[in-house]
Amino acid sequence: MRKYRLILVLKSDIKKEEKQKLLDDVKKWAGKISEEKVEEIGEKKFAYTIKHEKKGDYVMIRFSSERVEGDLEKRILMQNSVLRHLLIRD
Fold first, then answer.
1. How many other C-beta atoms lie within 10 A of the C-beta of residue 17?
2. Largest CA distance in the chain
3. pLDDT at 34 over 80
4. Contact of 79 with 22, CB cutoff 8 Å
5. pTM here?
6. How far, in Å, are 19, 41, 46, 83 from residue 52 at the CA level?
7. % of the chain exceeding 70 in pLDDT
8. Which domain holds residue 75?
9. Higher pLDDT, 33 or 20
10. Each residue of 60-89: b (16+ CB within 10 Å) or e?
11. Distance (Å, whole) CA 17 – CA 72
12. CATH number at residue 64
């Protein structure tokens, strides 16, 4: 099993239910996951505007998986509430 870290920067005005649904969807898209840990870093102000937003809500998901599905990043990019993302293999 490989370990991964996914950092998402979400719009700061995202609703709690919408955020939880997005996180559940991301977990589904990542494939068979074990050892998942979701860490909500919180809201931070940007040094510059990103998609007309001045601040964002940071979330980090650590998980283990055999392999990450190829369309995970494509699906994340299609979400309007995600401003930026970073997928790292630990």
1. 8
2. 39
3. no
4. yes
5. 0.86
6. 19, 21, 11, 10
7. 99
8. 2-89
9. 20
10. ebbbebeebeeebeeebeebebbbebeeee
11. 21
12. 3.30.70.60
The two tokens of residue 15 are 């609703």
DSSP string for residues in the chain: -EEEEEEEEEETT--HHHHHHHHHHHHHHT-SEEEEEEEEEEEEEEEEEETTEEEEEEEEEEEEES---TTHHHHHHT-TTEEEEEEEE-
Residue 61, token pair as written in the block: 């998901």
Q: Is the pLDDT of residue 20 over 90?
A: yes
Q: In whole angstroms, what is the distance from residue 5 CA to residue 73 CA?
A: 13
Total tally of structural domains belonging to the chain: 1
Contact criterion met (CB below 8 Å) for 4 and 90? yes
Token output for 57: 């809500």
